[in-house]
């Protein structure tokens, strides 16, 4: 198998940031925000306008990214990819200045085989040089010069024009079958 | 002028990490380590073997990268480059897990025109896609696919095979003349 360099995003690809929004919404407003998980939904569609700015500021809190749950199958799949390919974790941590340490610790804890050399905290992902980028955001795939792979998340249900991978089993099949 | 993407390293290029080693050495051992600034020198050459491991561990301290002095002319030069080119700060912060916040704050304070989108904390710099990389470490330039520019630091005095820029005036002349 030809060894490829695969760059993988964190939020909504490996980590369940939506789960954190739902958890905090329950705490702050005592209301259920599970609708955020429905395909096609995003914060703008499910949060009332007068709460939107507050909710969107939550990822700037020091603990927002701490101990996020892993997306189903992500950890095993990344371990498998790592055996056959060169895996980099490439996350736009720079947007949230308190996310560095929680994100770094998450990788250290959940993906101990990924060394510091293969972790990238960036902003604009057009700086990434890799063969593949697995990401949930169209804006990141748009400027990527390799092959962009859209990892399905509720907010990107209507995005077209990219190879779509709906879950981690599909990622494994794409690269290892 | 054709707009180019220029990736710029921090330590020993924009920030005076050697100055911090000298300062800490004075504090810890009450001895002068200014010899570290002489061309051709590095920690291995100027620190006694029995102290070397301790000194090399200092960058892992939470405050090592805090408020480092800027290298002469760096701030003005980067501001000038930014006017004509696309500047990314690309630093191997991942090697030192406490360096994220001090490095981020340094950029915010000294280079306020650099937004979070153009800051990259990485490990292995072969992940960087840019036209130019200004760096003091041969290992970073070696795997870079664009044009590598060696910024002179004491430890790289004997490195050959790269276009060498001895100071920030030479960087400005290289890109803007």
TrEMBL record, chains A, B:
<dbReference type="InterPro" id="IPR036412">
    <property type="entry name" value="HAD-like_sf"/>
</dbReference>
<dbReference type="GO" id="GO:0009223">
    <property type="term" value="P:pyrimidine deoxyribonucleotide catabolic process"/>
</dbReference>
<dbReference type="InterPro" id="IPR023214">
    <property type="entry name" value="HAD_sf"/>
</dbReference>
<feature type="active site" description="Proton donor">
    <location>
        <position position="11"/>
    </location>
</feature>
<dbReference type="GO" id="GO:0008253">
    <property type="term" value="F:5'-nucleotidase activity"/>
</dbReference>
<dbReference type="InterPro" id="IPR010708">
    <property type="entry name" value="5'(3')-deoxyribonucleotidase"/>
</dbReference>
<feature type="active site" description="Nucleophile">
    <location>
        <position position="9"/>
    </location>
</feature>
<protein>
    <submittedName>
        <fullName>Putative 5'(3')-deoxyribonucleotidase</fullName>
    </submittedName>
</protein>
<comment type="similarity">
    <text>Belongs to the 5'(3')-deoxyribonucleotidase family.</text>
</comment>
<dbReference type="Pfam" id="PF06941">
    <property type="entry name" value="NT5C"/>
</dbReference>
